[in-house]
């Protein structure tokens, strides 16, 4: 258990509304990531953070923004949700600042109707 | 372009039979390679990883994987599959410290 909590675990929202997903970690890790999982695509990196207020884009960042004001929290925001953003979102952390594996949260299933 | 390919979308094996899941990657240098498993409704759990050294790596739950540089492959194997191994398996490649690419996944069904 890497001490990662995602909230909410499930959410249904309407097209055009803003949505924020939260990733909380209890082990003070520097690196945090947001992925989305879709059938036929595996997991794709949306954004990542390498410290407080330090973030960067991943492979599929369009339509998403992130914030990290505290080490323990990494927020993913959909400013205006679209149906193409219906997905399962995973937060991940890395335990050390090097080439190592990522540890994943339980996921948030988001449905945009 | 950097990519990870899992050619088999779905595999069915009988309980007790051997298993091999395929993974191929594109990368010029020696990559860092991983296999993850995902049970329904769960997050991803690391099965094993390869960074350097012995090209046959052992993981949890009786899994092993072999890195073959000449074939750009990192196939996952298990000698005898158990019903509890039914899940989705993802191969991943770490291209730099923050760029981990995943294959599309292989769903494993185990027949009794």
Overall description:
The complex is a heterodimer of chains A (113) and B (112). Chain A is an all-beta fold and 113 residues long. Chain A has strands spanning 4-7, 10-13, 19-25, 31-38, 42-51, 54-57, 64-70, 73-78, 87-94, 102-104, 108-112. In chain A, the strands form two sheets. In chain A, strands 2, 4, 5, 6, 9, 10 and 11 form a seven-stranded mixed sheet that branches. In chain A, a hairpin with a 2-residue loop joins strand 7 and strand 8. The model of chain A has no long low-confidence stretch (mean pLDDT 93). Chain B has strands spanning 3-5, 10-14, 19-21, 24-26, 32-38, 44-50, 56-58, 64-68, 73-78, 87-96, 99-102, 106-111. In chain B, 34% of the residues are buried. Classes of the chains: A mainly beta (113), B mainly beta (112). The A-B interface holds A 31, 33, 40-45, 48, 50, 56, 58-59, 90, 97-99, 101-107 and B 4, 6, 9, 32, 34, 36, 41-46, 49, 51, 90, 92, 94, 97-105.
**Biggest interface, CB < 8 A:** A-B, 24 and 26 residues
- What is the string of SSEs of chain A from the N terminus onward? EEEEEEEEEEE
Q: Terminal Cα separation of chain B, in Å?
A: 41 Å
Poorly predicted ranges of chain B: none
Please mark out the parts of chain A with pLDDT under 50 across 5 or more consecutive residues, or reply none. Answer: none
| Class derived from helix and strand content of chain B | mainly beta
Radius of gyration of chain B: 13 Å
